[in-house]
Amino acid sequence: MLIWIMAVFVSNIVIEQGFDFNTTFELENTSTTNPLNLSNYTIEAQLRKTYSSSTAVEFACTIIQPPSDGKLQILLTDVETANLKEGRYVYDIKATNFTGQILKLIEGSALVRPGVTR
User: Fold this and answer.
1) Mean pLDDT for the stretch of residues 81-109
2) Which residue segments constitute the domains of the chain, with CATH numbers given?
3) Strand stretches in 27-81, DSSP E
4) Per 3-state DSSP, what percentage of the chain is helix, strand, and coil (rounded to 5)?
5) pTM exceeding the 0.85 threshold for the entire prediction
6) In the prediction, which pLDDT does 54 show?
7) β-pairing, 71-76 with 60-63?
8) Where are the alpha helices (H) located in the chain, listed in sequence order?
9) Cα–Cα distance between 15 and 81 in angstroms, integer?
């Protein structure tokens, strides 16, 4: 039986309130150091004030083509970031494949900083 173990990558991000936010991640398979093949996966990501918060903000997620390169992007619009209160948040990104296997790819804290220009 082959067991594939992948480490969860930790990446802290800064979100500017009232501005578009996007960032791209390049993932690798920790056992081979090759790009993580994201074919047959869907990606979801959420931002919450705390781990136990009942409300979440959903990031728009895109797997950058070709999926075999292991690149994904998350984004929030300026309207979405304007609705966030300044402060610290937590987020994570998960991948689900066609068989229902769920992988936690990335987690970290997010700092929402207030904007000046309106």
Assistant:
1) 95
2) 14-113 (2.60.40.10)
3) 41-48, 57-58, 60-63, 71-76
4) 5, 50, 45
5) yes
6) 95
7) antiparallel
8) 78-82
9) 7
